[in-house]
Please model this.
Amino acid sequence: MVAVFVAKDLGIPAHDTFLPVNAACKRPPLALDKVRFVGDMVAVVVAETKAAAVDAVELVDVDYDPLPSVTDPELALAPDAPLQFQELGSNIAAGEREADDTDVLADAEVVVRARIDNQRMAVVPMEGNAIAVIPAGGAPAEGTEVAGEFETTIYVSTQMPHAFQSLVTGVFPDMPADRVRVIAPHVGGGFGGKAGLVAEHSVTIAAARKIGRPVKWIETRSENLIAMPHGRAQVQYVEMGLKRDGIITGLRCRMIGDTGAYAGFGGVLPMQTTYAMAQGVYKIPKISYSAAAVLTNTTTVGAFRGAGRPEAAAFLERIMDIAAAELDIDPVELRRHNLLEGDIFPYRTVVGTTYDSGDYAAPLKKNCWSWRTIRRCGPSRRSGGRMGTYVSWALALVCMSRSPAVVAGRNTALSPCMTTARRPSRWARPGTGRGTRLRSRCWCRTRSASRWTRSRSYSRTPLWCHAAAAPAARDRCRWAETR
Model:
């Protein structure tokens, strides 16, 4: 065994994973006075071999005083709910509420309501996180002619190497950005889960600097399921007002985003991308929208495939189906009556999002025949009578930029694309009218974790690290190889 470190030994400041949510809720990479979710790291062991590290971590003995916990974001809002951070006075890490108290449903003849649980999801990329850190005095970085050209070289499985470098130098201010080299080899799938600087990354960097030797950490699958930031995790209360002929008169949304234990940035997506897409492709004259990001004793929440936009499509299309059933109107016809169409583009929605172009009626007309055929013929024998039918729309934000054209601080320089059921999505290229079919390109650019580690050659004898975690997480095989 080489060393055992706890929080005070490494001295890593608490930091956000990616986007800041609340300064009072930043996560210490190694827990200090309290562990807030199953798997919260408390110590790291460095040893000569993996077997020695695993054996040593089993000897780590931590005295825990049980505290009340809350894992449901709605229950976390209760006045008597256990507080994650006492200084906040509540479990709300962030929130927004409409200043105008106007009732957007006042002129509706019919109001339909729904509580929609867009459940928490594990990102589960084909390969988990992996990082190798070569500190000053370590082996030369690949492709450099002189050893020490960079003070630190980091090989990391990340979606955003430039943002990763900025986050690293923010956490470790004594590391100049021009002396830190970040290399992103084959990522092995990201899907939002590999955005930012997670606690394991900063612990690996600090450990390498502490011992002055290269350190590598590779995430196991069981560890990935509870350590990598999760996605979705929204509870949506939606009310839609309509006339009896099916014309939408207003929409009221009350959203709860689960941030997890340390205010993960996914908890504020209801206030950002979900809000930006709340109107969808429909003519909705009035929208009232409020949201809260709530702390719970669970894995932190980040981004996953669309990062808040699919959640908007889900609640909007679900409430449209409920409205169609209540009014006894064909779901396709209800959507057709309310589509944005005509010479209105570029169009600014009620919530401030700008659509540069769109012809939503055309794909609906082209594809609704297949939906109606399936519905008329009924479920196929192959499906065992269990196949459902649906029609839905989704808009994807192709580009987002901070610009003076904002409403209440929200982004509005957005370009949409559209997709209908049973058809491939298309990225819209503003100004061209053309697009490219969406592909998950990482599927053809992945390697197994073991193959990736063998493809890099680091000098020196391998060391192995294993980290002790909060109770009920002993199956998390936290280890890192150092060379």
Observations:
- The two ends are 14 Å apart (CA to CA).
- Confidence is low (pLDDT under 50) at residues 399-463, 471-483.
- The longest strand covers residues 248-260.
